[in-house]
Amino acid sequence: MYNLNTDLVSRIEYDEKEQESIAKDEEIQILQAKIRRLEHLLHLKDVRVDELSMRLDQTRNSADAGVGSSDRRQPIHTPFNGRK
After folding, report:
1. In angstroms, rounded to a whole number, what is the distance separating the alpha carbons of residues 14 and 7?
2. How far apart are CA 27 and CA 32, in angstroms?
3. What is the pLDDT along the chain (84 residues), one digit of tens a residue?
4. What values do phi and psi take at 79, rounded to 5?
5. Are 57 and 77 in contact (CB under 8 A)?
6. Region labeled Disordered — which residues (predicted)?
7. Is 82 left (phi over 0), alpha (psi -120 to 50) or beta?
8. What is the dihedral of CA 44, 50, 51, 53, to 10 degrees?
9. Rounded distance, CA 10 to CA 16, Å?
10. Which CA distances in Å does 15 have to 3, 4, 29?
11. N or C: which end of the chain has fewer CB within 10 A?
12. What one-character-per-residue DSSP string does the chain give?
């Protein structure tokens, strides 16, 4: 013989836990989408920094070419954060 009251409480607890699990899964999906967006923005910023660094190097090279300092070494641009 089973206890109807215990089974009912267990079913209610199960349903509550199931709803909590669904809510957590939805929150995880939202957070993962936010992470993907931030990673994309970070990539765009890295690309922009690289573009600006190349422009700066080109400007320095053209300015140095006019001065006649051919023995000066130009710094090589490397990304400061190590990502590519």
Report:
1. 10
2. 9
3. 566 677 777 999 999 999 999 999 999 999 999 999 999 999 999 999 999 999 999 999 998 887 655 555 656 666 666 554
4. -60, 135
5. yes
6. 59-84
7. left
8. 140
9. 10
10. 18, 16, 21
11. N
12. ---HHHHHHHHHHHHHHHHHHHHHHHHHHHHHHHHHHHHHHHHHHHHHHHHHHHHHHHHHHHHHHHHT-TTPPPPPP--TT---
CA distances from 32 to 40, 41, 43, 60, 84 (A): 12, 14, 16, 42, 21
Structure tokens at 7: 């089974």
State pTM to two decimals.
0.60
User: What is the identity of the amino acid at 55?
Assistant: R
User: Residue 84: what residue type?
Assistant: K
Of 77, 74, 51, nearest in space to 63 by CA: 74
**Tokens 């709803």, residue located:** 19
